[in-house]
Amino acid sequence: MGTSVRVKEASVITPSEPTPRCVLALSALDSQLFLRFTIEYLLVYKPSPGLDQPNTTARLKSALSRALVPYYPFAGRVRPKPEGPGLEVVCAAQGAVFIEAFAVRYKANDFEKAPKTVTQWRPLLSLHVADVLKGSPPLVVQLTWLVDGAAAIAIGINHCLCDGIGSAEFLNHFAELANERRETSYMRIQKPVWERHLLKPPRGEERRVDSASHPEFSRVPDLCSFMNKVSTGLKPTSITFDKTRLNELKRVAQCTSEDGEAARYTSFEVLAAHVWRSWARAIGFPGNQKLKLVFSINVRNRLKPGLPEGYYGNAFVLGCAETSARELEEKGVGFGSGLVKRAKERVGKEHVREVMEWVWERKGCPDPVGVLIVSQWSRLGLENIDVGLGKAWHVGPVCCDRYCLFLPVRDECVSVKVMVAVPTSAVDNYHLFMRSSHL
């Protein structure tokens, strides 16, 4: 695999104009222990006739340099605060990294299906940052020219600096600057807003938080060597749900809901429940094993007052649905959909304040036992990011692992591609259950 991609050049890209030299504090939600990793996106663009590769590379490097002016913390370095809890960013225009590479074997159509192994596409982002708090650049961009003239752009962004919505806003800003075909007057660039003080942890008051209302931070008994069961010999899978299949799932959910025929569920609620149930049934957990479905809930508009447009920090909390493996299987997708829906409904201003206390004062962090994490990338607009090469042919992660991603489908705004790696022994049953919503 080491020869599948050859790096031509790696450059440090600094802001094109002077930027503030300062130390910026990150919020309580930014500083959570479980966010200290890199978000890794992979966008693949089809070949363009007559494409000038050197000019395109130069355009992207220039656009990155200009994007780092308003987003100057992405050119800084994240570190723990010298005193007290939390993280901060040292902003001194240290720079991001841009890599240009050439693939030896990959073509655009190779990305139509899931990778053969969880790390098959790792060379497309060859600088992998294992520890985001040890002076590493928070932003890495790799442009890889594929053998058919297509382009793969992989982006690694330190999750401590932004969430999915914030990273998508940055990428759209970068794309607008890189796309020479757009008229400047039509640029839709959103002004980035730092303002991390708006998510201050609660201070100076005694608060009694009911742990039962935050199952995302509680531990469940491990009755089956859970981590070994779900992390060994993983095989990537990819299944697409179009509008017809999503509507069918909604009908099945209504029929099996404890709320009866009056139940109304969103596409996310029914698909998340269906994936959770199919995954659990395929792996075969003991009936009394407690299982959780964990997913992010955007709180930008759930706070009073809401966060300003352009806020690109982490502005989500974790929703958590919980039940036993037996109940999840026997009560059907409607039961699971109801759990997901109620987990979303629990989140309000007070809930967010309690989460900030958990992660700031108590160092709360989700325990992985019993957990399936679902991350919804299908509503971030990543498929519309056009750096002058057209819309992305493929959008997905650099590496596929046991965390489930909902991905956008090219030219089908309603459809969702579900990508997750499951144990090889469970793949066939997982596909069977996923394709048979009535079972």
TrEMBL record:
InterPro entries: CAT-like_dom_sf, Plant_acyltransferase. Keywords: Acyltransferase, Transferase. Signal peptide: none annotated. The keyword Nucleotidyltransferase does not apply. Pfam families: Transferase. The keyword Acyltransferase applies. GO terms for molecular function: acyltransferase activity. Belongs to the plant acyltransferase family. This is Omega-hydroxypalmitate O-feruloyl transferase. The gene is LOC106764046.
